[in-house]
Design a protein that fits this description.
Bound molecules: flavin-adenine dinucleotide
Distance between the termini: 5 Å
Number of helices: 16
CATH topology of the largest domain: Vanillyl-alcohol Oxidase, Chain A, domain 3
CATH architecture of the largest domain: 3-Layer(aba) Sandwich
Radius of gyration: 23 Å
Strand order of the largest sheet: 16-13-15-14-20-21-19
Amino acid sequence: MTSILKYGTIDDKILEELRAIVGDENVFTEPHHRAIRASVPAPFPLHKWSEHTPDVVVLPGSTQEVSEVLKISNKYKIPVVPRGGATGLADGAMPLRKGIILDIKRMCEILEIDEVDRTVTVQPGINMQELNRVLEKLGLWFPDDPASYPVAVVGGRVGTGGWSLVGAFGGHVPDLVLSMEVVLPTGDIIRVGNGGGRKIRKSSVGYRLKDLFIGHQGTLGVVTEITLDVFPRPEVEFPAFFGYNSFEHAYENAFKMTTSGLRTLGAVVIFDEEKVEYLRRDDEAYIPQPKSIKSIIATVMYGTEAEVEGAKKRLFEIAEKDGAIYLGEELSEGDWASRHDRYALPLHGRRRSDWQVVPMTWHCEDAAINHSQLPYVRKRWHEIASRYIEQYDGVFDDWGMFMYSNPPFRPWGDYLTEIDIGINELALDEETWEAWVNMKREIAEVVIEVEGSISACHGGTREGDVEVCVRQELKDGQFELMKKIKKMLDPNNIMNPGKYMLDEAYQEG
Ligand SMILES: Cc1cc2nc3c(=O)[nH]c(=O)nc-3n(C[C@H](O)[C@H](O)[C@H](O)COP(=O)(O)OP(=O)(O)OC[C@H]3O[C@@H](n4cnc5c(N)ncnc54)[C@H](O)[C@@H]3O)c2cc1C
């Protein structure tokens, strides 16, 4: 197949046009500005850095400016990649065809807080920590709570269709977005919501187009304004961690917790045996735990004092009846409080053989898996990881698995399941990079085997996952329809080209 499209080159004339739109001070061509916006926290192919460096960085200040930039890009056929907090783990904000990085972080205003109809309208560059700092003073709460909470921004959360740690209580990003303003690749500005109402939560009018613009990884346009649901701030947050003598023990008890009907549950998270062993290697909270504790369940509850008090009793009964050990207030509260920073921190690992510190960063492969399939997936994923660790000693490590309750407003049924892999990025070259891609492919294929979804959280746009997503998960007509929609909305394939293999929409032969 050959591409029927050719991209233009950014020359001085185009740079002048971009500067005229956003101002000289918001167009960057210097190498350091461009290089830093090539990288992402997913395993980064350092040896291929130059292939991902954009030609220019543009920071728009308004919807109108975004629209004008896209019109120029469309006219000269220049690729555009929107970039928010750049914490995405599916390479979404990494340019594959160079061109323009549209960094939306200047657009970070809160435009309206409606205390009566309980909504907040924001620009895409605001981050959840800052938003909640302002909402808290009014007794309000935006419950999107990813581990990347202090860094990811609302636009990027929409771009990935993000998942919240407390989603069982407050829903995930797709549940919390009421309406959005979107600039299409042609520069046209549209509004999508539940029907036409900006602050309406449920409507039966028209197609559900809002969902089309959630999780598209910047391939269909740029979100420039978002109206979100806000909740009353809960009176109480109550985390409780329990220890078990095996993964199987924790797995059975998790089922009883998630199906207990307790509406206050925000999350039920299983740490498997490999995860507990990893934490025991150098996390000070876990080192002193008795050796008999092999697996852990973390829970958190939200609600009024009276609700949580009652629910707490029931939860402890469920845990203790099955022989679980409560790990105490200090560990429960401390670990829950550190949920927003612990995963960004690991810059080292410990070699398995002698526990020597080695340079390693954290990477995770996530999937949506039904409860019934968790033990099988766990066994297979660890087997796959072990094989690669054995072959590439010191390059990869298995940091264990988490299984988080996944469905919004109901903790049962399926889980966001992740395997955390330590990677020595300095050791990545052509061979080890290919090994990493193959490992991911094998991990993704297990998901298809059990009829899961390759990502509950980050998206399936990375090398390794993407072929399995497109060719296997979305094979029954979904990918074909995606290509038609992409080509209709983005006739010149300027928006984040190369992602989700959507270039195929523009090929012939
Ligand atoms: C330590 C750590 C912990 C994490 N924990 C979680 C977690 O608990 N839950 C979770 O869901 N994710 C998690 N992630 C992944 C990541 O934080 C999310 O995917 C997040 O939604 C990305 O937001 P961002 O602002 O960083 O977006 P970016 O990475 O900048 O962009 C993500 C995608 O959205 C597109 N995009 C950005 N802005 C716009 C816009 N205005 N319009 C259209 N498209 C846009 C980009 O092109 C890209 O494809 C974690 C990541 C890290 C590093």
